[in-house]
Amino acid sequence: MVPISYYLVLSAILFACGVAGFLIKRNIITIFMSIELMLNAVNLTFVTFAAQWQALSGYIFVFFVMVVAAAEAAVGFAIIIAVFRTRETLNVDRVNLLKL
Amino acid sequence: MLREASLLLGMHDSMNAGMFLLVAIIKIAITVGVLLTIVAYSVWLERKVVGHMQNRWGPTRVGPFGLLQPLADGIKFILKEDLTPPYVNRTLFILAPMLALVMALTSIALVPIGPNITVGSVTTPIQITGVETANNQPADIGIGLLIILGVTSLGVYGIALAGWSSNSKYSLLGALRASAQMISYEVALGLSLVGVLMVSGSFSLRTIVERQLGSPWHWNIFNGGWQIVAFFIYLMAAFAETNRIPFDLAEAETELVAGYHTEYSSMKFAMFFMAEYANMVTVACLASVMFLGGWSGPVFGPPILQSLLPILWFLARVFCFIFLYIWVRGTLPRFRYDQLMGFGWKFLLPLSIANILVTGLIVALRA
Amino acid sequence: MSHLILFLIFAALCVGGAINLLVQRHPINSALSLVLVTGSLALIYLLLGAEFVAAIQIIIYAGAVMVLFIFVIMLLNAGAEEETKGSRVAILLGVPGLILGLSTATWVLATRYPGPGSVIIGQLHGTAPGMGRLLFRDFLLPFEVTSVLILIAIMGAVVLARRGSD
């Protein structure tokens, strides 16, 4: 039997890694990946509590989070490709002026 | 610990965890051995059949009817120089064929090949992930079909990473095309199977087959579920998923040198080759299970024959499928890439959604 | 006991993948670490008894979203990351911030939920029929709204990524 707190600590570790990646990294795609890592960590928390309280609504929420993450990934990549076409760089530090 | 493992695997009391492990290992060894032999000899079958279709003999010299040709090819692959080009990404270069082969071989664990078989005092279903529960009822994973779809989705990684790590423009282009093709047709593949799911009411492959036992009229393409349109969508999507003619632009020799496996030689190339044929066998097994009644067929004779005949009927269906693949390969030209993508998104996808609607109507009217 | 061993193995894979995502400089290596994290998470969901969620985690995250990531990285041919002044400052502040946030969260969680949980390995609770019933009865409105959301995302992605000269 594994205590519930172990799963929650793992979720906290993954979320913290996601936040750190979001703050540290300079490549827009890696920042995006850190966002996905944060979403996964939150999914783990939802599934843990749904398993503990035997509430299927938790799993439904996880389903919706996954769907929204996929939609966000699609639109986010379209924006990244549009920005890349004009700025020719993926480094966020270089995309800091409204005019080229 | 063994008791918890028994709980995890949901086993019947008559078999403890140690015996279960032994039985599972034996099943895995037999299944993988048979699968790899089928893969090797489907290469031989393809060369013979395509040869005869082109009015020539195919392999005839190595052994009677060229039957030892796969053995000779295997020895050739092992003894060839394994060349790694200098500027490749080494880790991914070595990882990619392994990923492709692992994903191709994993799906066979979920496919039910027959009902229970009893050897001595041990009864087990003919399926690697099948367990024997109380009342002689075989059971398997509740989400078997979803796991097969997931493993098929993961198969894209082998190709994408092979093209990327090869550090060559032909490989990258071929990999991008092949990955885009595979993920596009995965949608049509999955949706064509939703009709069968609605009719069967379960993701478990064993339940889907057990609904179709009886006469051929009960198969899912006939009265079982009227999934004949879904069967043809599945067939076309499967051809595209396995990168076979007419959808093999990504690895066509005349277009892109050899696509994503241009830079590979010897055993790694053989692994891609094996992965392609193993994917064919997996798709054939899945089609037999979902649409053509699995192992249904006349069963007679002494108990040992009664256990083995379902395997024979299953293998007969798989053989028919592989023969169909080879037949189409020898006959049709290949699609251009834009025609291929247009076909997948603009024709197969709306057709499979329409099939789901009609199947829903049928299920509602039957209930 | 076996539950604990399995959990520790998959948790180690998750944390290793997450840290590798931060440490690697080329985005393709980070993407593959994220694939490993999502795969291990799917196995952890299976340990918790959520079989349907584990399957769709593999199909959607590891099989579609991450393939999209790898596709875009291959298409844009993004090179390894370069260090700028901003990134050095960020590492100086980010890593201690991470450790601080992590310790706080661990302390809070370990003191608030000290007892053993009630998750037994092998009890598969989140089955597909149950979730289907919930999705199409109690949560029908969010389900339909999500389908409209996906449609909008598809249209938005197609329009945004078009070449401007059309």
Jot down its keywords.
heterotrimer; B: 367 residues; mainly alpha; two-stranded antiparallel sheet; 12 helices; globular; C: 166 residues; Four Helix Bundle (Hemerythrin (Met), subunit A); 2 domains; 6 helices; 77% helix
Topology:
The complex is a heterotrimer of chains A (100), B (367) and C (166).
Chain A: H1 4-24, H2 28-53, H3 56-87
Helix pairs in contact in A: 1-2, 2-3
Chain B: H1 2-9, H2 17-53, H3 69-79, H4 90-106, E1 114-119, E2 122-126, E3 131-133, E4 137-139, H5 144-165, H6 169-200, H7 205-210, H8 228-241, H9 253-256, H10 266-290, H11 303-331, H12 337-366
Helix pairs in contact in B: 2-10, 2-11, 3-10, 4-5, 4-10, 5-6, 6-8, 6-12, 8-12, 10-11
Chain C: H1 2-23, H2 27-47, H3 51-76, H4 85-112, H5 128-136, H6 140-160
Helix pairs in contact in C: 1-2, 2-3
What does this molecule look like?
The complex is a heterotrimer of chains A (100), B (367) and C (166). With 100 residues, chain A is mainly alpha-helical. Helix content of chain A is 79%, strand content 0%. Chain A contains 3 helices and no strands. Chain A has helices at residues 4-24, 28-53, 56-87. The longest helix of chain A is centred in the C-terminal third of the chain and has 32 residues, at 56-87. Chain A is elongated, with a radius of gyration of 17 Å. Chain B has one domain (87-366). Chain B contains 12 helices and 4 strands, in the order ααααββββαααααααα. In chain B, strands 1-2 form a two-stranded antiparallel sheet. Chain B has a two-stranded antiparallel sheet with strand order 3-4. Chain C folds into 2 domains: 1-79, NADH-ubiquinone/plastoquinone oxidoreductase chain 6, subunit NuoJ (Four Helix Bundle (Hemerythrin (Met), subunit A)), CATH 1.20.120.1200; 128-166. The radius of gyration of chain C is 20 Å and the shape is globular. Chain B binds chain C through residues 1, 4-5, 7-10, 92, 141-143, 146-147, 149-150, 152-154, 156-157, 160-161, 163-164, 172, 175-176, 179-180, 183, 186, 203, and chain C through 1-3, 28, 32, 35, 51-52, 55-56, 58-59, 62-64, 67, 70-71, 74-75, 120-122, 124, 127-128.
Number of helices of chain A: 3
The radius of gyration over CA of chain A amounts to: 17 Å
How many angstroms does the end-to-end distance of chain B come to? 46 Å
Order of adjacent strands in the largest pleated sheet of chain B: 1-2
Order of helices and strands of chain B: HHHHEEEEHHHHHHHH
Tally of discrete structural domains of chain A: 1
